[in-house]
Design goal:
The protein is mainly alpha-helical. Helix content is about 35%, strand content about 5%. A two-stranded antiparallel ribbon has the order 1-6. α5 packs antiparallel against α6 and α9 crosses α14.
Length: about 650
């Protein structure tokens, strides 16, 4: 029988374990002598940093927490019926209770082993309470026991404050306000910490993120401490990480759900708290000011491709946009590059090869469970036109007879659409009809049970060449493949800044510490990929819609959509509760030799329309997950979320 993790009752046990275990794994490729000394874990930098390394190790790999994983819960994705038992479809049904023990879901409360390097042993909920307990024990002990330099102490404290805030914040996104555990709970004491409102909890999260930002350097490599581990510091928490999450925390707190409570109707979707939005803008603006002046170690990955369909980057490009999420031929290099701001450690190359890479294309070519990640047609509609306008704008130039023509360049990078050359090599006779993606109605890749239900696949996170013909020898799927989805990257800082400043002043809104306006920040991202700027005609709520659409495109399929719809009070609204398929007939390409000679984006189709696959029936209670029943039984003041 699986044991449900009781967070508050287990805190004391977690503390005892953290005091007695030795941190013996190379979580951040750290120096061997940074292992925790069980006798004196807080005496010096080496020992205490080793103690903190275990907290890094607990960060879940949200895309590889099981054989086939799920991290997208919004209107963005659907899978095949074989996956109906896992979290995505259970959310579609409104069965949020599935979060508690669904192995495929990275947030779940089961599978808790902080010392393991196996991503299957890490889910967020159990790890969160364990890590918070470790942080509190260290903070309680450091003044008395630590004997290092002031710089060493500041860098240790900064990481500890950051992690206490981060684990609380990640839980709050799904569960709402919680008891903010900021002290050691002695063994045997029954915890009776009050369950705070979201906003009360967010204030304490902000205090800890601010402390972390004040204590940490921008770049560890430029410190005396960091110079000891040059080349091994890129995953470590720094001032930019802390400021980014400070801004995110304030923006989430400013958002309509947190201000007005769960409700249907969507009438308050544009009603933010201006004061909190201003605080978000200040934190994020500080990063952008440093970034624009070249004073951080971060930079945008290149969107320069020789062949965008195959993710073949241009010559002399060191790190491409694709490599934020997937690397190959780079000696197992973890994805993210200089754009990723927060990642956990990853030893996930083998999981990339044997599990994850096989869940983005038709089963006949990828040979894994029929839990295939595929974008809904309604979500693909967020990808606008090359001129920067949304496809439903009358001036955009969108033509349903040429639905793939002149789209935002990210469409061609992210989306597998009809007629793309899916298999580069010569396929066997039995698979020859899939050399070019057969995604028209009735096409070779449209089987509901084991291919695309929607008329699309997506390849943003794993390129389409990860299949049995083009993936290298046998099951290798390319030399040294490694996949990882960052928790936060530089583009998101610009998106959050654009949203926060739009609350303050629309397209021209800005913070006092940054020269960029809201629309400037969006256009930085569009310039990177070559899409047209935001049209000057958008203002007011229409401009906020463009901010949100840009967020949907730039962060597509990275696991943020559900929380965005939730905080915008749109999760229950009809436009966002349907999942549709694209249905059409090929006109150009009925003879597939057409695609051997012509760019598939220019192909003409007929009778293009969408059909509803499913409709979510959500009530206001679906804005929050239910709390674990066992947690709410500990004491009366720890109340269940409404409706559950």
């Amino acid at each position: 029988m699986k044991k449900i993790f009781k967070p508050f009752a287990a805190v004391a046990l977690a503390l005892l374990a953290s005091m007695t275990m030795t941190s013996c794994e190379d979580y951040l490729d750290k120096e061997p002598d940074s292992d925790v000394s069980p006798e004196t874990p807080f005496k010096d930098f080496t020992n205490l940093q080793g103690y903190i390394e275990e907290i890094y190790n607990c960060i879940p790999n949200k895309a590889q927490c099981y054989w086939t994983s799920i991290w997208n819960l919004g209107d963005d994705e659907i899978q095949n019926p074989q996956a109906d038992g896992i979290m995505l479809h259970q959310v579609d049904l409104g069965n949020y209770w599935a979060w508690t023990n669904n192995d495929q879901f990275w947030f779940a409360s089961n599978r808790f082993n902080p010392t393991s390097n196996n991503p299957f042993d890490h889910r967020l909920y159990g790890n969160a309470w364990y890590c918070i307990a470790k942080v509190n024990k260290a903070l309680e002990s450091i003044d008395e026991l630590f004997t290092g330099t002031a710089e060493e102490k500041n860098m240790l404290l900064g990481q500890l404050y950051f992690f206490r805030a981060w684990w609380h914040f990640e839980m709050m996104e799904y569960l709402g306000g919680l008891p903010y555990v900021d002290r050691v709970i002695p063994a045997g004491e029954s915890p009776r910490l009050p369950r705070e409102s979201y906003l009360e909890c967010a204030e304490k999260v902000a205090d800890d993120f601010q402390k972390a930002a004040d204590l940490l350097p921008v770049d560890w490599d430029n410190t005396t401490v960091g110079k000891r581990t040059l080349g091994k510091n890129e995953l470590r928490i720094n001032k930019i990480t802390a400021l980014a999450y400070l801004g995110k925390n304030y923006l989430w707190a400013a958002s309509p759900l947190m201000q007005h409570g769960a409700q249907k109707g969507g009438g308050r979707t544009y009603d933010y708290n201006q004061d909190l939005a201003a605080k978000a803008a200040q934190a994020l603006g500080q990063i952008i000011d440093l970034q624009e002046k070249g004073q951080t170690q971060y930079e945008f990955a290149s969107f320069d491709y020789e062949n965008i369909y195959d993710h073949t980057k241009a010559k002399n490009v060191d790190y491409s946009y694709s490599e934020i999420f997937f690397t190959t031929g780079r000696s197992w290099l973890q994805p993210g590059g200089k754009e990723a701001i927060l990642r956990g450690p990853s030893a996930g190359w083998s999981f990339t090869r044997y599990n994850y890479s096989r869940t983005f294309g038709p089963n006949a070519l990828c040979a894994q469970d029929n839990h295939i990640h595929q974008p809904t047609a309604n979500y693909v509609n967020n990808y606008g036109m090359a001129n920067g306008l949304p496809i439903d704008d009358p001036e955009s130039g969108y033509d349903p007879n040429y639905p793939f023509k002149d789209r935002d360049p990210r469409f061609y990078h992210d989306i597998v659409f009809d007629g793309m050359e899916y298999i580069k090599a010569k396929p066997d006779a039995g698979d020859a009809n899939m050399k070019y993606a057969g995604l028209a109605t009735g096409g070779s890749m449209r089987a509901v049970e084991n291919a695309s239900r929607t008329g699309y696949f997506y390849q943003k996170l794993v390129p389409h060449v990860c299949q049995k013909y083009d993936g290298g020898s046998g099951d290798d799927y390319g030399p040294n493949p490694h996949a990882y989805i960052p928790y936060l990257r530089l583009a998101d800082v610009y998106l959050m800044y654009a949203e926060a400043t739009a609350v303050l002043g629309g397209p021209s809104g800005k913070s006092s510490n940054c020269s960029l306006t809201s629309v400037d920040a969006l256009n930085v991202l569009r310039d990177r990929c070559g899409a047209g700027h935001v049209n000057a005609k958008f203002s007011g709520n229409a401009y906020m819609d463009e901010v949100r659409r840009e967020r949907a495109v730039e962060l597509s399929f990275e696991g943020f959509r559900f929380n965005d719809l939730q905080r915008w009070l749109l999760l229950t609204e009809p436009k966002y509760t349907v999942k549709t398929s694209a249905e059409f007939i090929r006109v150009d390409g009925a003879d597939e030799t057409y695609f051997a000679e012509n760019d598939p984006r220019n192909a003409r189709v007929a009778e293009y329309h969408e059909e509803v696959i499913l409709q979510r029936n959500f009530d206001a209670k679906h804005y929050w997950f239910p709390l674990l029943r066992d947690d709410t039984y500990i004491y009366a003041e720890f109340e269940q979320n409404p409706g559950w």
